[in-house]
Input
Amino acid sequence: MAKDNLTAVLYGVEDLRLEQRPIPEISDNEVLLEMDCVGICGSDVHYLVHGRIGDFVVNKPMIIGHEAAGVVVKCGKNVKNLVVGDRVAIEPGVPCRLCQFCKIGKYNLCPDMVFCATPPYDGNLTKYYRHAADFCFKLPPHVTMEEGALLEPLSVGVHACRRADVGLGSEVLILGAGPIGLVTLLVAQSMGASNIVITDLSQNRLDVAKSLGAMHTVLISKDKTEEQTVKEIQGLMPNSPDKTIDCCGAESTTRLAILSTRSGGCVVIVGMGGNESKLPLINACAREVDIRGVFRYCNDYSTALALVASGKVDAKRLVTHHFDITETAKAFETSRYGHGGAIKVMIHCQPRDKNNNKPF
Ligand SMILES: [Zn+2]
Ligand SMILES: [Zn+2]
Output
């Protein structure tokens, strides 16, 4: 096997390095993967810029990256679901499987979750990476490796729409047209939403949302009062949205989410901003607007894969930029500053399309 295991390691704030690491040894329930591609997520950029997210602090070197796909090159002796050569999407969080949360199926709440590139655990922007075999999802031949990597953000969208009970005829408001807002838009469409309004501070992002099928867009601006923005949103949906998904999590967007939602409707908060927010809680209570949290995803990967494999969701439209792993610094810069209208930036650990049966 090749000795090259070039790896992107975050040492601390503004200190991302490429270095050689030993090829990992696998345990009996794991597979060794030759990594194909890894998407850059807002959280990866956040760790680079701030060195922490909430209580998760980078205080020793950590391999970055968690939106990934690879090819199985070795199987542990207990592995039955995969064989060498399988192309897989990697669900990056592996729970303990033993605690009360795991046992009731809400494994995203497991306190012992090992999640890629969440300190202290390593991620997978590397050439060789080991992972629990049962958290790898075999891709059908017509699904590309990049689409496999995109199942990660897509699963966030699936989980958010499930938490909001989006279904046939739902009238959905999405706050934020970044990558998570956009995947939520794609999933809400596939689940049968009849009207979708999406908001953002950037007209460019709203244009992308429109091209992906958002029926209406609302530009958030400091020149409008909160009341005016709520009126504008509700004017686009005569009965007001019944499902609102806040993909920003800023105080201002969560306020808009509550105030815009129809009585009896539901607000789901995906984005996480500051620790505390001033919210119109009594308004929500008096109108029976449910407020629900979301933490990552749980049992959503296979659904996300089905949406892509069936063609119901065209996730590849979110990828705007491609870089080789040797260009990791440039890739992060592009994602961080949104250069060239960047939405999803993909880093390739192998030559592009090496493992695809059709070009991405
Ligand atoms: Zn992510
Ligand atoms: Zn657990």
Summary: The mean pLDDT is 96. Residues 95-96, 98-99, 101-102, 110, 112 surround zinc ion (ligand 2) (CB under 6 Å). The radius of gyration is 20 Å. Residues 145-163 form the longest helix (19 residues).
